[in-house]
Amino acid sequence: LIFLRHGETQSNCGKTYCGWTDPELNARGKEQAQKAAEKLAALEIEKIYSSPLKRAMETADVVNSRLGLEIICRDELKERNFGVWDDLTYEQICNSFPEEVRLWERDWLNYRIQNGESALDMFQRVAGFVDELVKQGGNSVLLVTHLGCIRAAVSHLLGMGTEGMWRFRVDNGSISRICINNEGYAYLTALNV
After folding, report:
1. What is the pLDDT of residues 131-163, one digit of tens each?
2. Residue 125: which H helix or E strand, with range?
3. N-to-C CA span, the chain
4. Count of CB atoms within 10 A of residue 42's CB?
5. Residue 176 — φ and ψ, nearest 5°?
6. Total H helices, total E strands in the chain
7. Which residues are catalytically annotated?
8. At CB < 8 A and 24+ separation, what contacts does 7-14 make?
9. Which of 180, 123, 181, 120 is CA-nearest to residue 155?
């Protein structure tokens, strides 16, 4: 499985919680997508799955201009739904939702943001999809998705559980890769390149 984080957006620059908000790539994000496309062109990719959010689809389209495959959109690859916190900075969230922030800090894994989802909800959604792909078998599959999803997938595949999500850095436009052998054992071969 090859994971590509979408290119940069204005929300990334503003350091907001950008979940299901749907910004497009900025100029730097488009450059990041082009660089990723150059790196990925050397690989024999059989399938491309993408989050349907604009930033991921734009990135997938740039990569696919070199690969010529069908892009399969899957909602399971969307970023975490931050609900009423979406597209707000941490400071704005703290000022507008102080009680909710206290609840979240007490239980970051299970706290479900109003109109959104918990970290566990997102982890289970992504893990279920990744498990489905692994069962299907095949060779190189590209998933164009988001920071939270890549962290969840890598942590899940490496057997680190939800706590492991915080142990990975994944930059905009970066590629990470996990190989899974015939026995179903996953090992990390590239992270954030």
Report:
1. 999 998 878 999 999 999 999 999 999 999 999
2. helix 119-136
3. 14
4. 8
5. -130, 150
6. 7, 6
7. 6, 146
8. 7/31, 7/32, 7/33, 7/36, 7/55, 7/58, 7/59, 7/172, 7/173, 8/32, 8/172, 8/173, 9/55, 11/87, 12/172, 14/89
9. 123
Q: Summarize pLDDT for 106-135 with one digit per residue, the tens.
A: 999 999 999 999 999 999 999 999 999 999
Q: Residue 14 has which token pair?
A: 């503003």
Residue 10 has pLDDT above 90, yes or no: no
Going by C-beta distance under 8 Å and a sequence separation of 6 or more, which residues neighbour residue 53? 6, 20, 22, 78, 79, 146
Hey, what are 81's tokens? 């739904």
Say whether pLDDT at 11 is over 90.
Answer: no
Separation of alpha carbons 3 and 54, rounded Å: 17
* Three-class secondary structure of residue 26 per DSSP: coil
pLDDT in tens, 74-114: 999 999 999 999 999 999 999 999 999 999 999 999 999 99
What is the DSSP secondary structure assignment for residue 46, as one 8-state letter? Answer: E
